[in-house]
Amino acid sequence: GTPTADGAVTAGLDFTPVAPNTLDRVVVPEGYHQAVVIRWGDPLFPDAPAFDFDHQTAAAQARQFGYNCDFAALLPLDPAGRAQLLVTNHEYTGEPFMFRGYDPEHPTREQVEIAWAAHGLSVLRVEQGRDGRLTPRFSPLNRRITATTPFRLTGPAAGSALLRTTADPTGTLVLGTLNNCAGGVTPWGTILSGEENFNQYFANPDPAEPRLARYGVTKTATERKWERFDPRFDLAREPHEVNRFGWVVEVDPHDPTSTPVKHTALGRFKHECANVRIARDGRVVAYSGDDERFEYIYKFVSDKKVRQGSSRSARRHNMTLLDEGTLSVARFTGDSPAEEIDGSGRLPSDGRFDGRGEWVPLASGGRSFVPGMTAEEVYVFTRLAADRVGATKMDRPEDIQTHPHTGVVYCALSNNVDRGKEGREGATEPNPRVGNKHGQVLELTERGGDALSSTFSWDLLLVCGDPASPDTYFAGYDKSRVSPISSPDNVAFDRHGNLWIASDSGAALGANDGLYAVPVSGRERGHLKAFLTVPVGAETCGPVIGERVVTVCVQHPGEVDGASADNPVSHWPDGGDSQPRPSVVAVWRPGRRIGE
Ligand code: FEO
Ligand code: CA
Ligand code: CA
Ligand code: CA
């Protein structure tokens, strides 16, 4: 590596950190360029109309880039990676920002159908020019998946009575995917996508059904009122439709006619993501976090082994790997005396928040390990199964990634302001702060480095927040030299093994969200630096750290309290008096590699 401006040496991180700011633009380090790759409403197909904010239609939206891009992946289409497939999730719609004069009590059918078409995923060919810029292209591989695209349920709970509806008495065919937050790229070149806060789309739950309340399905009317336009969103009429969301979905972006699947073997909860690694014997392991306060971290181990190669038949086999296996949940123990974990975030006397843990099995195929629950119930009501085995309640488990060189697993725990509140659990060693506004990043090392292990050790790499505050920790690094960070969400690695973290703090530190990089080994471990910040009201999502280009999704620019399409507070990216548009942004440095 080359020396950084402040004299430190870390391969791939030679850039001057971006200062905290509240600017309505994407701010990158000196010498770097940035440009929008694609915006909400941009056409993905030659027959799609140009975006017209004041004349939107559902038919147009179904052929255009969707709203609120979150996860993103770049899959190379040639060995040099000149052409790539950009796959993005469209997590949710923000109707007050999408439509002028929006009346939340009386949405129109057209507005609702635009929202259905703005959810889901986009697949888009992009080409990288010599200077690093990414340009979108029309391609036969381009695809939109929406809230009405057919999906097949697979795995042990497929066909279960709990998943059958009037429209689908087989319990295997679902229309659409909702609230796709983060995801993962599988080693076989497909995309996993987590259905996260699906509860918000369903109205009128049976109040006597505690299993629905456990998932936050509690309202007699939803915010978007979809239940008025399609009875499947009205649980009084279709009580099982909600059970068909909350899964990890898998999409083969190389086959635009393929039917995407929902893998029931990975359990049903508010999946942030799912990320796959290959164990030494060829079986695959997927980690997934349930992103809500006091929820859990899960691991799935496949029965079958991965088939090498990128042939269609290998991919077809590998797309069944997540259908048969064992689902477990994490139980953490700390090694410091309980009285030293006082909720303040101060380090215990051994100098580390750390300890051991175990993966507690919940179900394997048709066999349940949870007393009083069938295997089908474990898969469909996974949260209740994890409750019963005493899993450890975490501070909002977000993205999870395995380090490409060391095999150490990194999990972002976003925040949990309810920890320590009246009647709620207090501090634990992996979740050491009460009223936790800023979150932490956890390292988990499977025993012997074996992905199949049933036990692990763990420690906190970062306890986030203002580095000047005594309740923060940056792996013991000099806190006067690190960037402030709040609410870690997505994590990714560069080719050098540095960890990159996207934040979703909602300005908890009074500044815009950003993308940060931190070495996880060597003398510079803990030296966190801000690489970019995003515009007002936006969240940074879906980072992809390439050799020559970094991409991020800028989700919900301008989404702050009191703002709307009638009163926009952001005009990014188009400037002037334009409406803000969620977009993918590429960052590069002409003629140079990232961070070098
Ligand atoms: Fe959609 Fe967990 O962030
Ligand atoms: Ca300790
Ligand atoms: Ca997220
Ligand atoms: Ca988040």
Automatic annotation (TrEMBL):
Pfam families cross-referenced by the UniProt entry: PhoX (PF05787)
Q: What domain of life is recorded for the organism?
A: Bacteria
- Give the span(s) annotated as Disordered: 561-583
PANTHER family per record: DUF839 DOMAIN-CONTAINING PROTEIN (PTHR35399:SF2), SLR8030 PROTEIN (PTHR35399)
Q: What is this protein called?
A: PhoX family phosphatase
Q: Which organism is it from?
A: Saccharothrix syringae
